[in-house]
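seq:
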Amino acid sequence: MLLGRVVGTLVATRKESTLEGLKFLVLKQLDIEGAETGGYRVAADAVGAGLGEVVLYATGSSARQTKFTDKRPCDAVIMAIVDTLEVDGTVKYSKADAD
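struct:
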């Protein structure tokens, strides 16, 4: 599982039929400290994430293990919205403080 921040949306009016109904978000990849790594990822949103939120996402075959993405050609899926990220007793991110 990986960390990312939602920075945008992706709209595709023409797509493979099994992708119909999926919402795609653009993520800026984060490291364990919550710092941006410079990479981006497009992921299907299974949890209703919004712009600016820090999320937990999976890639590869793990991305197809949710009820939302089962048997769909997805390579990345957002599966959680992060409330708090704590590393070695230090809070690196808190959704309450980010609002």
